[in-house]
Write a structure and sequence with these properties.
GO terms for molecular function: monooxygenase activity. By secondary structure, the chain is α/β, with parallel strands linked by helices. A 6-stranded mixed beta sheet has the order 8-5-4-1-15-14, covered by helices on one side. A 5-stranded antiparallel beta sheet has the order 10-11-12-9-13, with helices on one face. The protein has a two-stranded antiparallel ribbon with strand order 2-3. Strand 4, helix 1 and strand 5 form a beta-alpha-beta unit. The N terminus is likely disordered. It binds flavin-adenine dinucleotide. Flavin-adenine dinucleotide (FAD) binds next to helix 1, strand 5, strand 6, strand 9 and helix 8.
Length: about 400
């Protein structure tokens, strides 16, 4: 099997060979979600896949977004996913206007918009990850297949090793469920403490997404029991506004998650390139960023549309090689994502500060001023060439 182009939106994958799957079991169209992983093995290259075939590894936001964008341009792809189903953890994602403009361009914006509340004053909606992924997966009906795949090694693992850092922040995230309707205004609510912060935002008429992010010097034991997580979270914010405590109480057990927030620095020149040969990284695999400004998913969608356009130029219009398309994609996106990874990390550090004096200046001067000026959201002004064909 000789895949001409391999896109990756995952963290660890092997490119020391080619991945084989059971072609007979493929369905000819539509997405196939399998219950058991398909046998994987490393085999020598064999030219039995059309030259223009594109393989996307990882059915996350970047992977599915790229599949739909390519499909919109008339280019087929295959999506390989290691998990047994689409990832549903992480409950909700704040999507800003850059994310929405991409979702509009690939034909799913209006379908998603009507399911989620718009925040006051700007195009921001908290969108359930599950629904976003399912919507993208359902849109990708032609020439896309869903496979299960076991993780391999990341091609850049050696190079990246020095750039993996772990922040000492932990986040508990989930959605409170109000069967009779949630009572909150459509706005994002933040509460800042010393070394801890929380937030909640209405997602829909019955759901309210919330998080508590706190400093921790060590990961501690893995806790999966929701009642323990709930209790610990309530302890952390025990004197905080009753609205927050109430939402935590109304959260279904199976949605409570605790996750470490990990940062990996991306530096000009020293960081490895996003592409090598005919392999390119998109989304978090290239530029993971802490969710302090909530930019990751929107950037993954930006990557998807920019990369698809470049690939269309290479594969359909033959104006450049695939390798040049990847380089051009990286150049176009780098200027946006690099400052954003730094800014997201810096904002996170400021918000997690535990020094009382710094916290006082932050809460009384910095945050009100930034909220008024709104400069932290200037990155959401994303302009791109519209996809022309469907
Ligand atoms: C707590 C938290 C809150 C966040 N909040 C926001 C927010 O409000 N707004 C926002 O825009 N972003 C937010 N983000 C960031 C956002 O979730 C990510 O930026 C986004 O999911 C990146 O999409 P992706 O497709 O690159 O990666 P992922 O969503 O991680 O998808 C990668 C996929 O690849 C698969 N995969 C991995 N390895 C392999 C392999 N070897 N073989 C096959 N498949 C593989 C995985 O199973 C997964 O399905 C948040 C993140 C966190 C952790």
């Amino acid at each position: 099997m000789n895949w001409r182009v391999l896109l990756m939106d995952l963290h660890w994958i092997s490119m020391n060979g080619y991945i084989k799957w059971d072609l007979e079991k493929q369905k000819k169209s539509a997405w196939t979600i399998r219950k058991k992983p398909i046998c994987l093995s490393i085999v020598k290259a064999k030219a039995d896949v059309k030259k223009e075939d594109i393989v996307i590894v990882g059915a996350g936001i970047a992977g599915l977004g790229t599949a739909v964008s390519l499909q919109w341009l008339g280019i087929g792809s295959k999506v390989l996913e290691q998990a047994e189903s689409l990832r549903i953890g992480g409950t909700s994602l704040a999507l800003f206007k850059n994310g929405w403009s991409v979702l509009d361009a690939i034909g799913v914006g209006s379908q998603l918009r009507k399911q989620f509340l718009e925040m006051q004053g700007q195009e921001v909606r908290a969108v359930e990850r599950r629904i976003l992924l399912e919507t993208l997966a359902n849109k990708a009906t032609t020439r896309c297949h869903f496979f299960l795949l076991k993780a391999g090694k990341h091609p850049h693992k050696g190079k990246w090793k020095n750039f993996i850092g772990t922040s000492r922040w932990y986040s508990v995230i989930c959605s409170g469920f109000f069967p009779d309707g949630q009572p909150f205004e459509p706005k994002v609510n933040y509460i800042y403490g010393k070394g801890i912060r929380a937030g909640y935002v209405p997602v829909s008429s019955t759901k309210v997404y919330w998080f508590v992010c706190f400093n921790s010097s060590s990961p501690g034991p893995k806790i999966t029991d929701p009642s323990v997580l709930r209790q610990q979270t309530k302890e952390l914010v025990r004197n905080w506004p009753s609205d927050l405590l109430n939402i935590i109480d109304l959260t279904p057990d199976d949605t409570i998650i605790r996750t470490p927030l990990v940062d990996r620095w991306l530096w000009p020149v020293v960081s490895p390139s996003a592409s090598t040969g005919k392999v390119v990284l998109v989304g978090d695999a290239w530029h993971p960023m802490t969710p302090n400004l909530g930019p990751g998913a929107c950037c993954a969608l930006e990557d998807a549309i920019v990369l698809s356009k470049k690939l269309a130029d290479a594969l359909q219009y033959k104006t450049m090689s695939v390798e040049n398309a990847f380089t051009s994609y990286e150049e176009e996106c780098w200027g946006r994502v690099f400052p954003l990874t730094i800014r997201a990390n810096a904002v996170g550090k400021l918000l997690q500060w535990d020094n009382p004096l710094v916290c006082s200046v932050r809460n009384n001067i910095v945050i009100p001023k930034l909220a008024w000026l709104g400069p932290v959201l200037d990155y959401t002004n994303f302009k791109f060439e519209l996809l022309l064909t469907n």
